Amino acid sequence: MNKQEVRAYVREQFSMLTGGEREQRGQKLHEALYRQSFWERAKAVAVTVDTYREVPTRPIIEKAWREGKTIVVPKVERERHTLDFYKLISFAQLEDKRGLQEPMPSQCEQIEKEDIDVVIVPGLAFDQAGYRIGFGGGYYDRFLENYQGKTAALAFSFQLFPSLPTEAHDIPVHHLVKENA
């Protein structure tokens, strides 16, 4: 399958999940994430605020807050084709931008990438080597080019593939937290 076919397949699988199934399966992934040593050591965690076609992340954000971790969330800078990250202390600091929940810069402190310990990288599909197919904008590929911290991704079983088409600029995640692992 090419990237477009993989994206279409995974989106279809997400559309077949009920909200309850998505939450229940997500909870198992969250529990597996919380057992990872990189999670325990992390002081600042970057994560997107999920949409319906991703593993739920709001419970991760809430857990991090309870543990005293700093949560940072991305804001897409379309003109520069980059991501900027902002410290989030409340979901009230988010606004809807083109279907994404993004931080309002006027209400949040910008955080530099070297101050982020772990980035939970979103994606539609992942392979066993940690390569991913994202949503098609290349924003995380550019962000991760010179990021020195740990990276992780959470994947439902239908998001896992033996291998995926990759390009020279693709960067695999360090840790792939899988369903039923």
UniProtKB/TrEMBL annotation:
It catalyses: (6S)-5-formyl-5,6,7,8-tetrahydrofolate + ATP = (6R)-5,10-methenyltetrahydrofolate + ADP + phosphate. Keywords: ATP-binding, Ligase, Magnesium, Metal-binding, Nucleotide-binding. GO terms for biological process: folic acid-containing compound biosynthetic process; tetrahydrofolate interconversion. Substrate binds at residues 49, 54. Its cofactor is Mg(2+). It comes from the Bacteria. It holds the Pfam family 5-FTHF_cyc-lig. PANTHER family: 5-FORMYLTETRAHYDROFOLATE CYCLO-LIGASE, ATPASE INHIBITOR/5-FORMYLTETRAHYDROFOLATE CYCLO-LIGASE. Belongs to the 5-formyltetrahydrofolate cyclo-ligase family. This is 5-formyltetrahydrofolate cyclo-ligase. It comes from Salicibibacter cibarius.
